[in-house]
Amino acid sequence: MSKLRFHPLEPLRFPLINRFYKTYYPAGKAKKDEIIWIGEDNKGIQACVRFKQFEQFQLLTGMLVHPDLRSQGQGAALLSACQAQTSVQPCYCFAFSYLESFYQSSGFVTLEDNQLPESLRTRINRYRQSGKSLTPMLYDQSSKRELSQA
């Protein structure tokens, strides 16, 4: 497994993140008002995740690991590295349903739609109407502790 360095993206490197998305996840597009964390090695950016900021919460979105590095623990390492960000205020995510257990192993708990803030309920319904199978989740630091003690 290659060893990635994880840290927030420096603003000057913002164009690189959209190039990374364009190559491996064309539907993803970073915005300058998002907080972006990356994992990189000497070859460049290999993983990223964005945090869209709302007034009372944030939405983890656009998580991407280079296809050659998937299923090697890099996504979990990225989420662990940005734990300070996921803990700063409530952090929701819309997990592709097949990734629900991955997010649960990183401290997210599954929610019912009615547990989401209204603006996120509207958003998840719109995404589902476009054919995406999504599960709403919320980061719960106590859940992460319970998992590590099990």
UniProtKB/TrEMBL annotation:
Its EC number is 2.3.1.-. InterPro entries: Acyl_CoA_acyltransferase, GNAT_dom. It is an enzyme of class 2 (transferase). The keyword Transferase applies. It comes from Photobacterium rosenbergii. Residues 1-127 form the N-acetyltransferase domain. CDD domains: NAT_SF. The keyword Acyltransferase applies. Keywords: Acyltransferase, Transferase. One of its GO terms (molecular function) is acyltransferase activity. This is GNAT family N-acetyltransferase. Pfam families: Acetyltransf_7.
